[in-house]
Specification:
Layout (H helix, E strand, L loop, with lengths): L11 E5 L10 H11 L2 E4 L6 H8 L6 E5 L14 H9 L4 E10 L7 H21 L3 E6 L2 H10 L6 E3 L6 H9 L3 E4 L10 H7 L7 E3 L20 H12 L3 H16 L2
Helix pairs in contact: 8-9
């Protein structure tokens, strides 16, 4: 049922990078604010080393959960010989609720065949790891949807996970949803000119398949200056509410219900 959801849930930001260097001065204040307001987050690694750094930087923040993975543009920089062994250990930690972010990014200016092959190899590895440990996968795609869909369909299974920073149209949304994915909606939904296809698609995407994310410090909502933080999650929810013609509290609690169920929070 569209209107069936758990009440009185907190805000859940399903994609943060609070371990990033630009948060070094304010991280403590932001985490205290999140603790006081009850907001929960899933912290996502970028570099291989950030899998460990983020757990150090967010130590003691009980509302945080973590993913295990490496951003597709960083896989060529992995030098640890036992990287996969270490990632597999992290994947079964009690505070690990997802695998990723992983995927393909064809926007990189220095893209070559070897790099693409590396990205695809690691992407398939993380998809299989997520399946093995029964965790959702956080999927990054940039100018690569056609190839990603080919790889996903080749696996011949239903997935659970999130298409991070979804910016596509309703046709693309339907293709991912048919494979089992939720759609991560972030600051892009506020971009009136650049993301008109996404804003139009929001009206047709079922609320059951939407989770909220900031991708902080990136993708600051339109009209705001500076880097993004979880404090802006209500702005994203407000735009979703406006586009769908529903109440913001409904968006907050429905998306939190979705995230809680998907990630086992």
């Amino acid at each position: 049922m569209e209107n069936s959801y758990e009440k009185d849930l907190p805000w859940i930001d399903t994609h943060t990078h609070l371990h990033a260097k630009r948060f070094n001065r304010e991280r403590g204040n932001i985490l205290r604010w999140m603790q006081d307001t009850g907001i929960r987050n899933i912290e996502i690694p970028i570099e291989y080393d950030s899998n460990f750094l983020m757990r150090e930087k967010l130590a003691g923040f009980e509302n945080a959960r973590f993913a295990a993975g490496v951003h597709p543009t960083r896989v060529s920089k992995i030098t640890a010989k036992d990287a996969r062994k270490q990632l597999e250990k992290l994947a079964v930690y009690p505070d690990t609720v997802a695998i990723g972010e992983t995927g393909l990014d064809f926007h990189v200016a220095t893209l070559d065949t070897e790099f693409v092959n590396q990205m695809e190899e690691w992407f398939e590895y993380f998809l299989d790891l997520a399946d093995q440990v029964n965790l959702p996968v956080i999927l990054h795609t940039r100018e690569a949807d056609e190839r990603i869909l080919e790889i996903l369909k080749k696996k011949r299974r239903q997935f659970k996970g999130v298409i991070h920073c979804f910016q596509g149209d309703v046709e693309l949304a339907n293709q991912y949803m048919e494979l089992g994915f939720h759609l991560g909606i972030g600051g892009s939904v506020t971009y009136t000119d650049r993301c008109s296809a996404l804003r139009k698609a929001i009206t047709d995407i079922p609320m059951e398949r939407i989770v909220l994310e900031t991708d902080c410090p990136y993708l600051t909502p339109e009209s705001l200056e500076g880097y993004n933080t979880p404090k802006n999650l209500p702005l994203i929810a407000g735009m979703v509410a406006e586009l769908k013609g529903v109440d913001i509290i409904y968006v907050k609690e429905k998306t939190a219900h979705n995230a809680k169920k998907l990630f086992g929070l």
